[in-house]
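Illustration 12: DUF2322 family protein.
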Amino acid sequence: MAFADNLQSLPSIDHIAELQLIDADGQVAATIPNAPGKAGSAKVYNALAAKHGGINVAAAEEGLQIFAEHTEDAKANPGAHPNIDRLLEVIASGKGYTVKIVSA
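Figure caption equivalent — predicted structure in token form:
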């Protein structure tokens, strides 16, 4: 399935302003706003965190499947898709994130 199709199956994020990814040191490592151009990633990360309790290796592997065609593009063009690059790094390092939801 394509990324757009996969997004349709994920829960709504209308109530979310942004997601904060918290690293092992308790620091905000990244934010993903619910904004044009980033809302798809926010929706994916929100669903993964709800299912897996955070962004761990299993969540990252599932996330790569959800991102579908964008995953291959990210692998071919590092830096073009930072939220996919982050999932690849979680898989490579085994170091994940706690996700904090900031309400809209």
